[in-house]
Design brief:
Helices cover 49% and strands 22% of the residues. The chain has 9 helices and 8 strands. This is Crp/Fnr family transcriptional regulator.
Length: 189
């Protein structure tokens, strides 16, 4: 739980007493490599804070092709947010790519936390805003850049993920073939 407190205190301060109450809203889960935290069609019960590991959030189109929406690593939050906030069945999958750990938070817990601790409401607002900005940046890059530019931007922003994630997943995330990614990788050595 110390990691949870450190994560929260990157944005807000909490007293020992407040944290004792805050932590009761979270559950801890160890995750195995290739384990799913969420399948398409599931009830979306949790938002997940990554403590350790690398995860991918993706959906399958009508032809069964995988489309990666997000990778998540330490201190990143993830779930199928549309389904989480609207309390609908999931349209996404969340899969662990390596051994990991997460903290789980229900929507009800998030709402109660925000009501009881206005500083937590601020915390969630900052996190949601940062996520929204990152999503807009990703959309802009996908819509208006070349594969080379997408590769360079991803490499610059996430050099650690370039090493930790299989190249086939990076290719999917960037919207290029595995062969194109190999060519881009070779050109940037």
């Amino acid at each position: 739980m110390n990691r949870l407190r450190q994560h929260i205190e990157e944005i807000i301060s909490v007293t020992d007493e407040e944290f004792e109450s805050i932590k009761t809203f979270f559950t801890h889960k160890n995750v195995r490599k290739n384990q799913f935290l969420l399948h398409e069609g599931d009830d979306v019960q949790f938002e997940f804070l990554v403590v350790d590991g690398i995860y991918k959030v993706y959906y399958l189109d009508e032809s069964g092709k995988e489309h990666i929406v997000q990778f998540a690593k330490k201190n990143w939050w993830m779930t199928d947010y549309s389904s989480y906030f609207k309390q609908k069945k999931s349209t996404m999958f969340v899969e662990c790519l390596s051994e990991g750990e997460v903290f789980c938070l229900t929507l009800e817990g998030r709402e109660k936390l925000s009501a009881e601790f206005h500083t937590m409401e601020h915390f969630f607002r900052v996190k949601l805003t940062n996520g929204y900005v990152a999503l807009q940046d990703r959309i802009k890059i996908l819509l208006s850049s070349t594969p080379q530019q997408r590769y360079e931007e991803f490499s610059k922003l996430y050099p650690d993920l370039m090493i930790q994630i299989p190249k086939k997943y990076i290719a999917e995330y960037l919207g290029v073939s595995r062969e194109t990614l190999s060519r881009l990788y070779s050109n940037n050595k």
